[in-house]
């Protein structure tokens, strides 16, 4: 009976994941043992977990490691994304308490689920094995299905959860089938090994099975990042889900989708770059255009932001299509700033809403600036950043994305991108028109300015403005984090 | 770099005002007004040493340069300086700002704090755009200007303000976004380095690329100018904006477009400039005639003035694209003139609008009897706008037409001249309908004349109208070297390109010829 | 012995049936069962390929897929129950509160 | 016997058919007489005689019961889902009978020079000289147990009767709950045997002590869980006459009803056989008796224990039952696994 | 392979044939006198009220979900149990962690009251 020799396992690369899991589980247990009036502490505890995980990733910067026989890695790319995930999770937690209390939801499970979802995202970013990526994706997705339908008493939330679940599971099927075929064609599920195999076997490796596998995987990922034509779920889910979760979904998981998508395409299929660039070109154009065009006539602000988030995925795809370091760094930077600006915008949407009546209609914002000038200013900053106006992080991000495309010679793509971005200004301005240029119809006296939400807004404003004015440091980080 | 960062101080001084305003309580409107006025005056004072310290040569002066963003392939600097081209525009901006603030001293009653913040932010944007030598920095300021202007029109504007504001924003945005693409393309074509515009001047691009990039830049600038047929946002924006907005829009923002042509589009893409000169000249002339004709039938005084702006800027474009010293300096001067006289016109429209809350020509008539001071001032400004000799308008238009006549744009100049006559027709006709005749409307009989503040606002403008009309030399003197340098640069590169295309031995012949050009004007 | 191709073809057919089922059926539970069928088709593919390649990775993958499918099933059922409680239906035609 | 088919000698096929028939008839007879034995044993335990009329001491009673059921009227409720109603008893019955396929019930015998292991799903591989059986035999049995649930759920649902439905649901909830605990309980056995092959497990016990001594906790847990899984008293809630009439089979009559009963008793036999194999050393025993005899003896003893329990213990309440399964047995099995793991790795 | 699975197929066939045959046989020889009352569902002799195809307690769903989850966890333990001796102490620690995590969920479910039947 021979002993099985196991590979040396280094836990350092998955330290943040471990911390989050431990905190998540601890919170679950704490949740069932503390009386319901003390559940607010769960939020603080989960923030501690987020910060602890954040601390654990700092030391890993610039120290490439891999573990579990190459199933997970710790590289700058993964770490940068982990930072984005932690950030969006932290901001989401800040805005959750207020909302959930108002809607009368039981928050006990909320925080563990957010932590688990974040853990899943991290796994997606650091996984270098299709299996790890898949597992991360599913940990994320399953948590999100619940989070989307978290407000059980609310019909829209139910619908959002169900819809997200059905379509999400459906897309998982495609992703998996793609992974299976890729595995069949190359004989491995390790992403770097796939690349090695293709490099070694050249055209022989590029069987129909291989191409179909890549295509199916791409469509699976495209669903997760809500790229057209796989975006149909986004508006309904974003509209129906509890607002903090909408904020979370649009920031974290989308970035995670990009992380996995980028790693798979860039690392595993570098030799097929011409093929997937063409594919992404089409995806990017469709995604930007469809997202923007439909967003133009949305009255519901959550829905409008949902379509805008589709459009933003399109901009990020522009950088991806470029397939060069600028484009990739642009995606990293953009995802980071998108987390700030989008969650910030949602934080204000949460403040404006009241129980049962979320005031999500654009017209509900009439005269908001008169009543709450500072909040309106913050909202304006977020919206300008989303629209890509300087001097905000949104502009720098877009600049990088489009620069990448231009450098790679995709000038037309960049032009379509900027035209889209100009069109998108219309619907962002619309909100501002209501906030600043219409007379108030409401007193907005139901609003309670919860300190946690205000803190979130403050962080978001700083996170939008500072990188917009002095982006060097962050861009530098993003540059160092790209896989290319 | 050890010298005093005069430009930065000037540019960001209004920002300091913004910060201060944040801390002033919401209700103390008079404090807001005073503070904003004070800041803008100080800014103006700070900008005066730029003129006095300016050496009349072609160099960039008061240079400040420090690294700003450095990441990946990009290197952006905070690089500001002025030369003869931007000097006067900067001065015009700092000069117009206090006037603009004063102009809506009483007209804006609501959200005064926000209003003043917007105005001051706008000033930062405009000054920044004029002084930037780094294309990226320029772009940032260019876009930043949009936001406060959008709010000024949208919040404090007239009935149709939202439509006008959004239209203004989106028009400008579309153009500038394409410019961004071209800008990045240019950067990559130029190879490693920074966004310094002077560096880009030296880059030689193949004519086909130039065409595309010129189009992208030109679109952005042409929208801003605005050139026919991209001008449709302007009448709306002007009509709906509060007086200060209109004044700034006319006096400074539109110059941003023409300035863009002079500073960027032409020197960067000389071959394309050459190629597109006929087209632009055609559009300018169409603009002159068309705008004049449309102005003639306007019912609304403010709209009429807005269309006259379109016509005036047609002259500027014509002069600029004549690409000789007369034309260019005429164009530059016309920019200043237009800033002064159209700004003044908008102020005047603002005065009567404040009194009567209408701008329809038919609502007035015979005001001269009731308001003699007003009538006098209005007359002077109208004449200046028409370009009567002795006023500033004349010098500019004359130089433009002269320059155009001397260049290959001769026939355009001929047609453009008719615009002068048309301008006289519609301006005077309007003046006559408003000021003379029977004082029929009873509401007009109680109108009171301009008060001290209003006269005080107008006085500096009137002074300038005459000074620039009678003694324009100092203005031209300071800008000429820079303009000459520009002309040489553009022409050399145009011919250089031709030489490259043609036979190689032709090149040495061209070089001395290019060197001769400035000598002619000395 | 049955060849790899037969397995792949069977799993492709299963996958297609699942896909079509998802697209044409209206009952949420049936849709979910179709999704499960797709996952199982994938599992079959993995097993067949794993056997063909003599590489254990595919089988390990199947373990994870099964686990995930179970978790999804649990969550999915819970969501459907919540939906049914509020709406007395699990027909996806009724999932239409938020349409354009 | 030189002929071969698909690489196997003809005698393999002959012996296979023989084994199948013998086992099937054996199970059938055991099932039939288990019903008789149950009535008799419980009768005697309760100091009465049980069936006495048909045959000597009522020995023909099962046959009489069977015949009676054959002649009964078939009733299919008008609102029932006909197909599901019809198929349900078969789904319940078949897994109960085929579980025996993987259980080794005796030592390898030799017929005409060909070695035949006494296990249906097994054969002697002449190349390696070993008995080849299903290497995941235990999983097979667990899988069958799961399939059996479908029969019951379908029966309950298709009858369109509230008692049936509730009975079916309760029964399936109970079955899956205890299936879980049972499945976890036997993991500690595999940790000792390092195999899921029942042949291997039996062989392992022959070399050392029976697993019921090495894993007493697992043994008890498994046996109790199995009883619950097959709805034996004291866990026969689904058919609790006092609460739910006849549970899932309320609407059934005639042979269909009989088939549920056959399934239940067949399950009992299978469970006892599995327990024997996993914990009681299978067919091994002192050599004075042949292996199959030891096997039958052990199985019959366990069947007797089942009946004994029925006669002794009162029925559980449903909430007690579920609580017992989830809150006591489940954690116990997990603890057992960990303790076994620690002890075993400390020993080596 | 075949040697192991063929007998099972045969056994299944025998069992199915037995089942079908006895069903057919009994339905052939059994009497048939259906009536509306006889075909109605049994409700202690009362008239049946409403349909039986209605909602039932959510408890059953929860048990079903819990079963799926724990059963799948068990799936991971089976391969481990066969190999655990060869994995050495590491294997025990790993499975210990696994079971601890399982226990976290278990305690959560317990405290949430999913295991209570009232």
UniProtKB/TrEMBL annotation, chain A:
One of its GO terms (molecular function) is quinone binding. Residues 128-421 form the NADH:quinone oxidoreductase/Mrp antiporter transmembrane domain. The chain crosses the membrane at residues 14-34, 41-65, 77-96, 108-125, 162-183, 203-223, 255-273, 279-297, 331-353, 374-397, 409-429, 449-474. It catalyses: a quinone + NADH + 5 H(+)(in) = a quinol + NAD(+) + 4 H(+)(out). Its EC number is 7.1.1.-. It is a multi-pass membrane protein. InterPro entries: NADH-Q_OxRdtase_suN/2 (IPR010096), ND/Mrp_TM (IPR001750). This is NADH-quinone oxidoreductase subunit N. It comes from Geobacter sulfurreducens (strain ATCC 51573 / DSM 12127 / PCA).
From TrEMBL, chain B:
The chain crosses the membrane at residues 6-23, 35-54, 85-108, 115-133, 139-156, 168-190, 210-234, 246-266, 278-297, 304-323, 335-353, 373-391, 411-431, 452-471. Keywords: Membrane, Transmembrane, Transmembrane helix. It is found in: Endomembrane system; Membrane. GO terms for molecular function: NADH dehydrogenase (ubiquinone) activity; ubiquinone binding. Residues 132-421 form the NADH:quinone oxidoreductase/Mrp antiporter transmembrane domain. GO terms for cellular component: endomembrane system; respiratory chain complex I. InterPro entries: NADH_Q_OxRdtase_chainM/4, NADH_UbQ_OxRdtase, ND/Mrp_TM. GO terms for biological process: aerobic respiration; ATP synthesis coupled electron transport; electron transport coupled proton transport. It is a multi-pass membrane protein. Pfam families: Proton_antipo_M (PF00361). It comes from the Bacteria. Belongs to the complex I subunit 4 family. This is NADH dehydrogenase I, M subunit. It comes from Geobacter sulfurreducens (strain ATCC 51573 / DSM 12127 / PCA).
């Amino acid at each position: 009976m021979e002993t099985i020799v196991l590979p040396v396992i280094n836990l350092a690369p998955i330290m943040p994941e471990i911390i989050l899991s431990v905190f998540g589980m601890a919170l679950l247990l704490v949740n069932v043992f503390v009386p319901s009036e003390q559940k607010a502490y769960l939020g603080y505890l989960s923030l501690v977990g987020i910060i602890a995980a954040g601390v654990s990733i700092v030391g890993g910067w610039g120290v490439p490691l891999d573990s579990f026989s190459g199933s997970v890695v710790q590289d700058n790319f993964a770490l940068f994304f982990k930072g984005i995930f932690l950030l969006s999770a932290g901001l989401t937690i800040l805005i959750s308490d207020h909302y959930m209390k108002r809607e009368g939801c039981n928050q006990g499970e909320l925080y563990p689920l957010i932590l688990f979802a974040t853990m899943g995202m991290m796994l997606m970013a650091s996984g270098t094995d299709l299996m790890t990526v898949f597992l991360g994706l599913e940990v994320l997705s399953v948590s999100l299905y619940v989070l989307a339908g978290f407000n059980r008493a609310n019909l829209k939330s139910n619908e959002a959860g169900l819809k997200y679940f059905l379509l999400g599971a459906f897309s998982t099927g495609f992703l998996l089938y793609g992974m299976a075929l890729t595995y069949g064609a190359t004989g491995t599920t390790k992403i770097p090994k796939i690349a090695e195999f293709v490099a070694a076997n050249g055209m022989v490796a590029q069987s129909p099975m291989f191409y179909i596998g890549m295509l199916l995987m791409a469509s699976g990922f495209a669903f997760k990042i809500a790229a057209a034509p796989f975006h149909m779920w986004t508006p309904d889910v974003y509209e129906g889900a509890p607002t903090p979760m909408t904020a979370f979904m649009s920031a974290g998981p989308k970035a995670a989708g990009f992380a996995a998508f980028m790693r798979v395409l860039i690392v595993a299929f570098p030799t097929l770059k011409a093929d997937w660039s063409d594919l992404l070109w089409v995806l990017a154009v469709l995604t930007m255009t469809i997202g923007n065009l439909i967003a133009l006539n949305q009255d519901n602000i959550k829905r409008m932001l949902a379509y805008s988030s589709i459009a933003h995925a399109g901009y990020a795809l522009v950088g991806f299509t470029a397939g060069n370091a600028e484009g990739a760094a642009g995606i990293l930077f953009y995802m980071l700033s998108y987390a700030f600006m989008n969650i910030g915008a949602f934080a204000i949407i949460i403040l404006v809403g009241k129980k049962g009546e979320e005031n999500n209609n654009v017209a509900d914002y009439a005269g908001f600036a008169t009543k709450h000038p500072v909040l309106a200013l913050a909202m304006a900053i977020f919206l300008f950043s989303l629209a890509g106006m300087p001097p905000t992080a949104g502009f720098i991000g877009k600049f990088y994305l489009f620069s990448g495309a231009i450098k790679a010679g995709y000038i037309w793509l960049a032009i379509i991108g900027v035209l889209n971005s100009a069109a998108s200004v219309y619907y962002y301005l619309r909100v501002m028109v209501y906030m600043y240029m219409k007379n108030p119809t409401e007193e907005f006296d139901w609003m309670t300015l919860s300190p946690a939400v205000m803190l979130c807004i403050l962080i978001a404003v700083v996170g939008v403005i500072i990188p917009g004015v002095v982006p060097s440091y962050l861009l530098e980080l993003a540059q160092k984090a790209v896989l290319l | 770099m050890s010298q005093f960062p005069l430009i930065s101080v000037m540019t960001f001084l209004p920002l300091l005002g913004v910060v201060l305003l944040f801390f002033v309580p919401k209700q103390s409107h008079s404090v807001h007004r005073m503070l904003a006025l004070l800041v803008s005056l100080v800014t103006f004072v700070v900008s005066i040493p730029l003129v006095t310290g300016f050496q009349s040569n072609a160099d960039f002066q008061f240079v400040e340069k420090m690294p700003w963003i450095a990441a990946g392939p990009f290197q952006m600097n905070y690089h500001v300086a002025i030369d003869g081209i931007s000097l006067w525009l900067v001065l015009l901006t700092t000069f117009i700002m206090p006037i603009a603030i004063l102009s809506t001293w009483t007209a804006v009653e609501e959200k005064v704090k926000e209003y003043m913040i917007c105005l001051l932010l706008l000033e930062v944007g405009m000054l920044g755009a004029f002084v930037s030598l780094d294309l990226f920095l320029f772009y940032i300021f260019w876009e930043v200007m949009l936001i406060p202007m959008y709010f000024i029109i949208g919040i404090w504007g007239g009935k149709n303000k939202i439509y006008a504001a959004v239209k203004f924003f989106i028009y400008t945005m579309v153009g500038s976004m394409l410019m961004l693409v071209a800008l990045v393309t240019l950067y990559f074509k130029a190879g490693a380095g920074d966004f310094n515009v002077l560096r880009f001047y030296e880059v030689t691009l193949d004519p086909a690329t130039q065409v595309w990039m010129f189009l992208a830049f030109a679109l952005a600038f042409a929208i801003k100018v605005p050139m026919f047929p991209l001008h449709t946002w302007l009448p709306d924006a002007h009509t709906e904006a509060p007086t200060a907005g209109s004044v700034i829009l006319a006096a400074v923002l539109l110059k941003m477009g023409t300035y863009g042509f002079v500073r960027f589009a032409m020197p960067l893409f000389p071959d394309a400039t050459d190629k597109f000169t006929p087209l632009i000249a055609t559009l300018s002339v169409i603009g002159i005639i068309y705008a004049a004709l449309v102005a003639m039938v306007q019912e609304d005084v403010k709209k009429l003035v807005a269309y006259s702006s379109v016509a005036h800027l047609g002259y500027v474009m014509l002069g600029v694209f004549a690409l000789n010293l007369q034309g260019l300096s005429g164009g530059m001067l016309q920019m200043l003139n237009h800033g002064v006289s159209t700004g003044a016109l908008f102020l005047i429209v603002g005065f009567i609008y404040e009194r009567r809350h209408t701008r329809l020509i038919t609502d007035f008539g015979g005001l001269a009897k009731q308001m003699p001071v007003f009538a006098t001032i209005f007359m002077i400004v109208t004449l200046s706008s028409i370009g009567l000799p002795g006023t500033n308008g004349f010098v500019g238009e004359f130089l433009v037409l002269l320059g155009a006549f001397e260049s290959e744009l001769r026939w355009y100049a001929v047609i453009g001249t008719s615009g002068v006559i048309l301008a006289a027709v519609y301006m005077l006709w309007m003046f006559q309908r408003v000021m003379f005749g029977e004082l029929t409307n009873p509401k007009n009989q109680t109108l009171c004349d301009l008060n001290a503040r209003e006269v005080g606002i107008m006085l500096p403008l009137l002074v300038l109208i005459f000074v620039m009309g009678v003694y324009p030399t100092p203005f031209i003197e300071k800008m000429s070297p820079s303009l000459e340098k520009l002309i040489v640069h553009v022409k050399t590169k145009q011919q250089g390109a031709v030489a490259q295309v043609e036979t190689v031995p032709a090149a040495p012949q061209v070089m001395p010829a290019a060197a001769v050009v400035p000598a002619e004007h000395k | 012995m049955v060849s790899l191709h037969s397995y792949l073809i069977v799993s492709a057919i299963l996958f297609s049936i699942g896909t079509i089922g998802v697209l044409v059926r209206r009952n949420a539970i049936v849709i979910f069962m179709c999704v499960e069928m797709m996952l199982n088709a994938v599992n079959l593919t993995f097993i067949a390929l794993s056997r063909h390649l003599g590489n254990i990775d595919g089988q390990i993958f199947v373990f994870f897929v099964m686990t995930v499918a179970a978790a999804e099933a649990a969550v999915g059922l819970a969501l459907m129950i919540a939906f049914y409680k509020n709406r007395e239906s699990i027909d996806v035609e009724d999932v239409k509160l938020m349409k354009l | 016997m030189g002929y071969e088919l698909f690489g196997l000698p003809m005698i393999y096929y002959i012996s296979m058919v023989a084994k199948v028939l013998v086992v099937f008839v054996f199970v059938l007879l055991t099932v039939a007489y288990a019903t008789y034995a149950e009535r008799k044993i419980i009768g005697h335990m309760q100091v009465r005689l049980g069936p006495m009329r048909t045959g000597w001491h009522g020995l023909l009673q099962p046959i009489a019961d069977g015949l009676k059921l054959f002649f009964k009227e078939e009733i299919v409720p008008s609102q029932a889902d006909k197909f599901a109603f019809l198929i349900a008893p078969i789904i319940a019955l078949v897994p109960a009978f085929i579980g025996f396929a993987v259980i080794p019930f005796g030592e390898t015998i030799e017929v005409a020079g060909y070695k035949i292991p006494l296990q249906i799903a097994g054969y002697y591989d002449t190349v390696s000289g070993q008995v080849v059986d299903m290497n995941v035999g235990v999983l097979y049995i667990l899988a069958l147990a799961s399939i059996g649930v479908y029969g019951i759920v379908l029966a309950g649902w298709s009858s369109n009767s509230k008692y049936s439905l509730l009975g079916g649901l309760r029964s399936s909830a109970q079955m899956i709950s205890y299936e879980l605990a049972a499945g976890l309980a036997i993991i500690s056995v595999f940790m000792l045997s390092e195999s899921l092959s029942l042949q291997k497990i039996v062989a392992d016990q022959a070399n050392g002590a029976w697993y019921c001594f090495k894993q007493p906790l697992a043994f008890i847990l498994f046996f109790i869980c199995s009883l619950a899984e097959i709805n034996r008293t004291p866990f026969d809630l689904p058919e609790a006459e006092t609460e739910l009439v006849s549970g899932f089979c309320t609407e059934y009559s005639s042979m269909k009803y009989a088939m549920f009963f056959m399934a239940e008793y067949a399950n009992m036999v299978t469970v006892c056989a599995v327990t024997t194999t996993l914990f009681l050393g299978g067919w091994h025993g002192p050599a004075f008796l042949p292996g199959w005899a030891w096997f039958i003896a052990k199985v019959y003893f366990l069947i007797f224990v089942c009946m004994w329990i029925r006669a002794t213990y009162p029925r559980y309440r449903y909430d007690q039952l579920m609580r017992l399964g989830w809150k006591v047995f489940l954690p116990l099995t997990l603890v057992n696994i960990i303790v076994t793991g620690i002890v075993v790795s400390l020993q080596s | 392979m075949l040697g192991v699975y063929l007998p099972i197929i045969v056994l299944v066939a025998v069992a199915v044939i037995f089942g079908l045959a006895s069903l057919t046989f009994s339905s052939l020889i059994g009497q048939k006198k259906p009536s509306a009352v006889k075909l109605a569902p049994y409700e202690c002799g009362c008239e049946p009220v409403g349909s039986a195809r209605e909602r039932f307690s959510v408890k059953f769903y929860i048990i079903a979900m819990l079963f799926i989850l724990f059963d799948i966890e068990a799936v991971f333990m089976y391969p481990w149990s066969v190999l655990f001796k060869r994995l050495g102490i590491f294997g025990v620690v790993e499975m210990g962690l696994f079971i601890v995590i399982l226990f976290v969920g278990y305690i959560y479910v317990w405290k949430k009251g999913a295991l209570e039947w009232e």
